[in-house]
Amino acid sequence: MILVTGGAGFIGSNFVLEWLAQSEEPVLNLDKLTYAGNLQNLAALEGDSRHVFVQGDIGDGKLVSSLLAQHKPRAIVHFAAESHVDRSIHGPGEFIQTNIVGTFQLLEAARAYWDALPETEKADFRFLHVSTDEVYGSLEESDPAFKETNRYEPNSPYSASKAASDHLVRAYHHTYGLPVLTTNCSNNYGPFHFPEKLIPLVIHNALAGKPLPIYGDGQQIRDWLYVKDHCSGIRRVLEGGRLGETYNIGGWNEKANLDVVKTLCATLDELQPRQDGKSYAEQITFVKDRPGHDRRYAIDATKLEKELGWKPSETFETGIRKTVQWYLDNQKWTQDVVSGNYRDWVQRQYAA
Ligand code: NAD
Ligand code: DAU
């Protein structure tokens, strides 16, 4: 069994679904179900005994220790975090609590559990920490892409909290020998992406006839990776990564925000044209910039490709098309999130 934290969120739920599609090894899924956690993402696993869901906080050391003792996982894959930059600007407290203190509590419980394992199991245990390219800060137009050796220069409360958690994970390896791995990935997109983030927000607003908000001049660059490719990268690192190492994950897909939004509009124009025959691009609206907005991220994933033979399977063009089609086919999923119905579903689920 493996323990996945944050497995009801965007990437975590994709990871759990992919894992159980490819393996019989069960997953213990620990998620607090904050606003970003959505059990509807995992509806396909209802009645599947390989998926054990526990609602709880990674910062609850007692709970985590008892789960480890009871289920004896051979690995922890740690996704749980507060993940939205704009929320971290409005209220950094939760980011410090979950991303830093929560990761510390999880590491403490993992260390005690790992320490007590028999020698053979000790050698095989893994703690894989899922992190972000944002810890490296912002690039100028002519800078090379981020390598694992780049200096940490986080600029938002979110990225600073992720940077702190990366440092804690590193320290637990160097000080205590905990067998850790860290991955730093670029921007993900795909199914089950919470519609507060750029791509799902734009698809939702376009279909709802609302403005498509572009921060500042829209020339900020992000490096986009289809979520299932992120998941396959994590699985590769878990299988073959060298202990204590960090691996960048990215798809070499740098795009300016305005171009991403225009691509989404063009894809929607083709797949579900507006009734008035005009383009969704007419809804593009420039709004106030994000404070401290990082200008450019770009990931150099050479280490993962060379050492572990990983390659993404989607290009930006194929991944975006799949994604737009998924949101068109699953409009109820987005409606339930936007209306808050997904919370009622959680209550119904737990009422029994
Ligand atoms: P998300 O916000 O969609 O999901 C986070 C999940 O963690 C939710 O299900 C939430 O309920 C859970 N959670 C939050 N606090 C918790 C706590 N204290 N205890 C237990 N569970 C808790 O996030 P995401 O986009 O899926 O990101 C997952 C991870 O990947 C994060 O660590 C993030 O930093 C990292 N990451 C994200 C991206 C991206 O583009 N989204 C890119 C690189 C790295
Ligand atoms: O780089 C990896 C990171 O990508 C992850 O670590 C974060 O968890 C994840 O949320 C994401 O952060 P970003 O800030 O890059 O993602 P977001 O979707 O919020 O924004 C993408 C870009 O689009 C960014 O430059 C801000 C801009 N934007 C965003 C929104 C929500 C807009 O122009 N308008 C918007 O309405």
TrEMBL record:
Matching Gene3D superfamilies: NAD(P)-binding Rossmann-like Domain, UDP-galactose 4-epimerase, domain 1
Protein name as catalogued: dTDP-glucose 4,6-dehydratase
Entry keywords, A to Z: Lyase, NAD
Required cofactor names: NAD(+)
Entry-linked SUPFAM superfamilies: NAD(P)-binding Rossmann-fold domains
Coiled-coil region: none
EC number(s) stated in the UniProt entry for this protein: 4.2.1.46
Cross-referenced InterPro entries: dTDP_Gluc_deHydtase, NAD(P)-bd_dom, NAD(P)-bd_dom_sf
GO molecular function: dTDP-glucose 4,6-dehydratase activity
Membrane-traversing stretches: none
Similarity section: Belongs to the NAD(P)-dependent epimerase/dehydratase family. dTDP-glucose dehydratase subfamily.
Name of the coding gene: rfbB
